[in-house]
Each structure stands twice: as structure tokens, then as C-alpha cells.
Amino acid sequence: MNKMIELIQNHRSIRKFEDKLLSDEQIKTIVESAQAASTSSFVQAYSIIGVKDKQKKERLAELAGGQAYVAENGHFFVFCADLYRHQLIAENYSQDASEALESTEKFMVAIIDATLAAQNAVLAAESMGLGAVYIGGLRNQLTEVCELLKIPPYVIPLFGVAVGYPAQQPDKKQRLPLQHIYHEDEYNQDKVAYYQQLNDYDEEISAYYQKRTNGKRKDTWTGQMAGLLAKPARMYMKKFVEQQGFNKR
Amino acid sequence: MNKMIELIQNHRSIRKFEDKLLSDEQIKTIVESAQAASTSSFVQAYSIIGVKDKQKKERLAELAGGQAYVAENGHFFVFCADLYRHQLIAENYSQDASEALESTEKFMVAIIDATLAAQNAVLAAESMGLGAVYIGGLRNQLTEVCELLKIPPYVIPLFGVAVGYPAQQPDKKQRLPLQHIYHEDEYNQDKVAYYQQLNDYDEEISAYYQKRTNGKRKDTWTGQMAGLLAKPARMYMKKFVEQQGFNKR
């Protein structure tokens, strides 16, 4: 196993950072790494907002559901799906591009582009000895996030990434069995095998929680998922992304 | 600059591979690297189909618009947004999870999860001396792709990744200026600066094409984008993703 694969496979989300800011040089290296990712038909349909302002970070922490590490970190990045510059280009070419811009296809392209860039950023940061955590909670209240960060139409903040000097070393959480995620030549729809894999995985995850909490917690993964599915979250999203100009046709 | 950042920043899409298959060990390492990526609320809402069957690869190459490297490579991965196992879990808990599963939010979560995993896979492959290219053309005809790979509901193939031993060393394409992609504290909506950046970038990209083609091509980036926007692509996508159970509310 080479160093890069070791780094990739040793990933943990870091949620507690030392009180030390990233340098501008570090930020630049991280953003340049993000930009080096592949992009669908070279569209580069994303942008990144780096938040330094302490008050803005605190407000974002509130909006994301009160996670302290959104404010307390070395730097906070907001990754956005972005077709705003494409809209400006169309304007400049006196072209009505709304059909393309508003399509579900382009919505997907912009999410994929932004996410490829983000994962490059996270790995670049980790390779520099920094830690990182994705903040999906940013999607809790996107209207407010957009106001705060002056986000124009055709842009959707997708998630945050808090980066900084790690002040914790959490355990690695075991993923689903490889054969559950990875299929060969066709999707394996054998439900009996599927449920068996989930069952085995539940036992593994439950043992992990029991060990970590001295027996206090023994959640299973399917139990967690069932709980999550029972509380539909962020149901305003469809309307919100349409208001931003995406996913309308 | 450390080795990892060098690797990330030296990324090029490889579209010509030696006639040599990946070993099962290499495939396993790549998939395990994919699995190590972060996942929203630990949902692991993706799956990967590795295609070895030569006929299936050739059919996928056709469906993706006739790109030879979809069939001719060391291994072909299809990355899917996947809430199928979550649907099975809900069934098992006698729970109606359709509101959550069908939400635009969960559609985004599944795309993000699959894409984080994919970028880990690509970088793992590159660190092993392999090359890779994303195949967005897979989305040209997803109904046929789903038939071929026996994809169940609540699963959407998002893109392919062809991996193999590189048989070419393409130039690196210059990305948008950093300050165009990266904003500080708020989104910079200064249109004059924006158009100026695009103009500078157009000159750079045009010089790149002229050099590469001995003056035959001199496209600008905004020209390419305007061309792309003028031909709305994959407009069946909204209906398709809804039929698969996603993005309905």
C-alpha cells in the first residue's frame, strides 16, 4: 500500500481543531488542488467561498445546527454548485441558455463538479497534516446562508468543509462490506444475500459503539438509517434549488 | 509541495490505455479507497459496478457516444447514487420512507456520496501509476444502461470511470483563475472584474489550443461554454431520475 492510499484509507472526520489559522499559502494550495479535479466537459461548474470573518463563521455554525467546529477551525470552505458564470457568458453572447441551465442534468453536473473539487481539497489538506470534516448541516437553512454569503442566482451552497490542525484522533468507522457496495458486471439484486450482509454489518457496527461507549450505545447501522429515514429532512430543498434556477426541467 | 499534492495537481484525464487488465487486488484497493471517503450522516448512499464483461463494455461504449476507451481499458467502474439498500431497510422495518427517499435533498446526498467515493478511487488509481477518465457520456442513455447492468429502482448510474495503464501523456489544461473560483467571506458579484477574468482566461485557453494544434484551433473557454449551453443535453434526465424514485418532492 503506497503513502497516498494509506492517507486515503486512514481518513477520519476531525471535529476538534487547535486554535490556529491556516496560512494564505496553505489555503492557496488547497484551492489549487481542488481546481485540479476533473470537470464535466470542462465546465468548472463550482465555486468555493473561504470564510475568515469570525462573526460569519459563528453565524454559519448557528445555521448549521450549532456545531462548534464550523466556527472553531483553521479555515472554513463553502463548496457551491455554480452556473452563475455560465449565465453571465450566455448573457454576453446574447443567448438564452435557460433550458440548459435549468435542467436536472446540469444540476447534477454542478453537484458532481463541486464534489470532485471538494474531495481533492480534503485530501490535499490531510496530506499537509491537517484534518477536515464535511458540514452537510450547511443545507439546513440555505436561504440564510445565501444571504450571509451574498450568493447570486444559479449558485447553491452544497456543504462546508472545516479544515484545521487536528485536536483529536477519532477511531475509523468501518464501512459497509465491500461486496455490498461493489458489484461485478451487473447489480446484484439478491435480497437474501443483501439482508445477510446488512445483518453482519449491523453486528460489526454495534460492537464498535459498545466498545467506544463502554456498552452504553449499541446502535446498528440499519437502525440508524431507519431512524434517519423516519425523519425526512430539508424538505424545502426542491423549492429552494428551483428558486436558485436549478433542476426545473 | 508534498507527493500527494503533486499527484493531485498533476491530474490529467487519460483516454488511451495499454491492453492490460487490472488485477483483482488493484480493483479491491481502488474500491476500498472509494469506501474510505466521507459520507453524509454515514448513509453510504452509493454503489459501484465494475464491468469486466467485454460485450457489456462495448455496449456501454456505444451508449456513451462511441468513446473507444469505455471498452478499451484496464477496468471500467460505474458509480451510482444508491438509496436502494435504504429502501430495503425501510421495508424491513415496515416503514414508509418514501418522503425521505424521494426528496431532492436525498438526491443531492446520494450524488455527493457517490462523487466523493469516485474521486478517492481515481486518486488511488493514479497513485498506483494508473490513469483514469470520468465518463459523463454514460448519462446519454441511462434507461439502456440500467437495463444492461440490471439497476434496480432508487439507483442512478451517474458516470463511469475508465481506469488502466496510460498509453498517452496529455498536456494539463489550465483551470479558471483561482480568484474566479475562490471568494473570500462573500461571493464576489463584481461583473466587470468577472468578465475581465473570463477574458484573460479566454486568451490563455486560446493560446493553449493554438499551440497544441499548430494554429488550427483557437477556441476560447467562454466560446466553448456558449456552444455547450446552446445545445441543451440530456433533457430526459428530470423524468428519468423521478422514475428511479429520486428528486420528486
From TrEMBL, chains A, B:
Alphabetic keyword roster: Flavoprotein, FMN, NADP, Oxidoreductase
InterPro entries reported for this sequence: Flavin_OxRdtase_Frp (IPR016446), Nitroreductase (IPR029479), Nitroreductase-like (IPR000415)
Residue stretches making up the Nitroreductase domain: 8-165
Keyword set includes Oxidoreductase: yes
Pfam families assigned to the protein according to its UniProt record, in alphabetical order: Nitroreductase
Enzyme Commission no: 1.5.1.38
GO-annotated molecular function: FMN reductase (NADPH) activity
Enzyme class: oxidoreductase
Family from the record: Belongs to the flavin oxidoreductase frp family.
The name this protein goes by in its record: FMN reductase (NADPH)
